[in-house]
Specification:
The chain has 14 helices and three strands. Strands 1-2-3 form a three-stranded parallel β-sheet. Helix 3 packs across helix 7 and helix 11 runs parallel beside helix 13. Bound molecules: adenosine-5'-diphosphate and tryptophan. The site of tryptophan has 12 residues, from strand 1 and helix 7.
């Protein structure tokens, strides 16, 4: 059985469980992670886990959770994550109990005031009321710190909304190390992480109906959002009715023609996904000056519908038993690594000799 190589550094990230993944998530987060995993797995252990314990920090439909956890693993697989690479670990947080146990210990070394300053808690709790605002939502970052510290991860690629949590992880690791000696590997500072991953902050697919806003699953109408599960014909219609402008000429100008610019980006991405070796610049020069927006939109709509058809076929064809086997073998290996760290911590705080 494979266990982690203690001399190999670790890249770790949590890939959230939900069923309504849109093309912004796919091109902005999922594909880059799959790409990173493939490129870096010779020099690093790559830990990709599904933070399923985090998924009910805000209210959800629990009858759908189990399937959405598996669906996440399926989506990564359909996006090209290799399951036969022994340096890539794919596992569920809830199947490695050390996450919860370490989180409890870290909770007791975390200040109430410190947690109260987390902006994601403020943003999310503003949208909830009364008992919906759970203690779990409040100490979400502590569990996240445990996720990272258990595996001695040095690099943790996350979106901007998570950098405060990463800073907290570094803080709590340093605090514990000062108090108890070298317990944890402290992840690299955020600036160094950005350098390492060559952070591309450029990609932000915009909402089709309101192209000054980013495409987001929290859009209530869904009209401007293309979900990976959308019927291709429905997605086609969404693109045909995308908001454009009255300038009447295709140009890449994010300021004055955000709708058209967004469609040029989407077209480039779906073409790349189809294996075509094209850049945004090439797409721009192909279409600049075109005057009939309807014709332009039809091309984007056709190729996006084709992308969805292909993706959905890949998703339907994933090897379910191989995914299940991958999860189980990773979880077995991860329990060994995580328990080593947990024991070290239990010893340090006086729970073990
Ligand atoms: P949402 O706004 O749909 O809730 P999340 O905030 O859950 O999306 O983001 C999940 C991941 O997807 C993050 O890494 C984020 O950077 C990426 N992402 C979300 N929306 C977009 C978008 N419109 N374009 C590119 N990447 C996006
Ligand atoms: N909080 C992350 C998000 O919302 C998911 C996550 C949980 C995570 N634990 C993590 C990411 C540990 C990186 C490392 O996207």
């Amino acid at each position: 059985m494979y266990t982690m190589n203690p001399t190999k550094p670790v890249i770790l990230t949590g890939v959230r469980a939900n069923n309504d993944i849109h093309i912004g998530n796919y091109f902005g987060a999922i594909l880059p992670i799959v790409d990173m995993a493939k490129r870096r797995s010779t020099d690093f252990d790559i830990n990709l886990f599904i933070p399923d314990l985090h998924s009910f920090t805000t209210p959800i439909d629990h009858s759908k959770l189990y399937d959405s956890i598996l669906n996440n693993a399926r989506i990564y697989t359909a996006a090209g994550l290799p399951l036969d690479n022994a340096a890539i670990h794919l596992y569920r947080q809830s199947r490695v109990p050390a996450h919860s146990e370490l989180a409890w210990i870290l909770d007791c070394f975390t200040g109430f005031g410190e947690m109260s300053r987390m902006t994601q808690f403020k943003d999310k709790s503003d949208k909830l009321h009364g008992d919906q605002i759970s203690v779990g939502l409040f100490n979400y970052p502590v569990l996240m710190a445990a996720d990272i510290l258990l595996y001695n991860a040095t690099y943790v690629p996350v979106g901007d909304d998570q950098t405060q949590h990463l800073e907290f992880t570094r803080d709590i690791a340093e605090r514990m190390n000062r108090k108890f000696g070298e317990l944890f590997t402290v992840p690299k500072p955020v600036a160094e992480q950005h350098q390492f991953f060559g952070k591309d902050q450029g990609l932000r697919i915009k909402d089709l109906a309101n192209p000054t806003k980013k495409m987001s699953k929290s859009d209530d109408t869904g009209k401007g959002v293309i979900f990976l599960g959308d019927n291709p014909r429905v997605a086609h219609k969404k693109i045909m009715s995308a908001t454009t402008d009255s300038l009447g000429k295709v140009q890449y100008d994010r300021e004055n023609q955000p709708g058209i610019s967004n469609l040029l980006e989407i077209l480039t991405l779906v073409r790349q996904d189809a294996g075509r070796d094209v850049t945004l610049e090439q797409t721009i020069s192909e279409f600049t000056g075109m005057e009939r927006y309807g014709d332009f939109k039809r091309i984007v709509a056709d190729e996006t519908a084709e992308f969805l058809t292909n993706f959905q076929a890949r998703l339907a064809a994933v090897d379910e038993p191989a995914i299940e086997a991958k999860l189980q073998s990773s979880e077995q290996a991860m329990n060994l690594v995580a328990n080593q760290t947990l024991h070290r911590v239990q010893k340090a705080v006086g729970l073990r000799r």
